Amino acid sequence: MLIVNPSASSVTARSRVLVNKALSADHDVTLCETTRRGHATRLAQGAAAEGYDVVVVLGGDGTLNEAANGLAGTATALATLPGGSTNVFARTLGLPDDAIDATVLILEALAASSIRRIGLGSVNGRHFLFHVGVGFDAAVVADVERRGSLKRWANHVLFGWAAFITWLRGYERNRPRFSVRVDDAPGSDDGVFTVCLNTNPYSYVGTRPFNVDTGATLDSALSIVTMRTLDLGPTLKMIASALGSGEALRRSPNVAFHQQVQSATIDGHGPFPHQVDGDYLGEVDHLDIRFEPDALALVIPR
Predict the structure, then answer these.
(1) Of these four, 123, 137, 265, 296, which has the most CB atoms within 10 Å of its CB?
(2) Are residue 141 and residue 270 in the same domain, yes or no?
């Protein structure tokens, strides 16, 4: 099954036709287009129930996340093609930003049966492929989504502007917003911004990866990084570090850093925003995070 989000930032009628034609040369393909939020989850669930071997997603990270939630725990594999504005997960797997070029690599992987099961994170029951953002970055994503019509044209400029405006006046950053407790540890970390990683990088800034924990891979459990402050000086230092190896960020006294996390809870000092794989999910008072090994069959480009 080829699931296409026709509204995704870089999906065009031409790319949809060419991808479908390329896949159909060697495989029986059913083309389905999403029409609403959550539709990709239902389509993927139907594909698994009907015994499809693979679901290929042409869309952004949000559409891919929905499909992964529909396939988690089943034998049907997931393959990704870049169709969004940033395509974090596709680029993490080493796929090019061009959907046609990426299709060639996916077809090669299918021909070689390059499919293996990977672990996923889950937050309040929803699976995630690469990260959950809690606090500041979720507020940024919410601001971007309010200007969704500009994503196709502005992309990284829009995210940069939204981050600046949110930091300046759109997010309460002068007090802790929540506390993070990892693997039932006796202590907790207060913070204004937390990211829970299933893979690295956290995102991309143009062609540069934004590295939070280079040790976070599909073969490891989760990493959790909590920032205690977003004051200008420390924040600029952490951004500069993440545009390199991220080592200085992880060693910063303003950061609490945990690797190989199996479970964590986040409790708010009042409601706080969160996003999953770049999809804003609103404000909550509590998050329950878990690592689920071998949850998803994934087509791995060779």
Answers:
(1) 137
(2) yes
DSSP bridge partners of 286: 267
Query: Cis before residue 234, ω within 30 degrees of 0?
Result: no
Residue at a domain's end among 113, 146, 173? 113
59 domain residue, yes or no = yes
Q: Give me the CATH number covering residue 42.
A: 3.40.50.10330
The alpha carbon dihedral of 158, 164, 168, 173 has a sign of: positive
Number of domains in the chain: 2
CA–CA distance, 266 with 279 (Å, rounded to integer):
19
Domain boundary among 60, 81, 113: 113
Asked whether residue 177 is assigned to any structural domain, the reply reads yes
- The pTM assigned to this predicted structure is 0.92
Nearest 5 degrees, angle CA 138-CA 224-CA 156? 40
Between CA 251 and CA 77, with CA 209 as vertex, the angle to 5 degrees is: 110
Same domain, 148 and 96: no
Over its length of 302 residues, how does the chain's per-residue pLDDT go in tens digits?
A: 999 999 998 999 999 999 999 999 999 999 999 999 999 999 999 999 999 999 999 999 999 999 999 999 999 999 999 999 899 999 999 999 999 999 999 999 999 999 999 999 999 999 999 999 999 999 988 888 776 655 555 566 777 778 888 888 878 888 899 999 999 788 889 999 999 999 999 999 888 999 999 999 999 999 999 999 989 898 899 989 999 999 999 999 999 999 999 999 999 999 999 999 999 999 999 999 999 999 999 999 98
**Residues in CB range of 31: below 8 A, 6 or more apart:** 1, 2, 4, 16, 20
- Give, in order, the Cα–Cα distances in Å from 123 to each of 17, 116, 119, 286, 287: 35, 23, 14, 10, 6
The tokens 């559409």 sit on which residue? 63
Q: Within this chain, do residues 152 and 255 fall inside the same structural domain, yes or no?
A: yes
φ and ψ of 285, to 5 deg = -105, -15
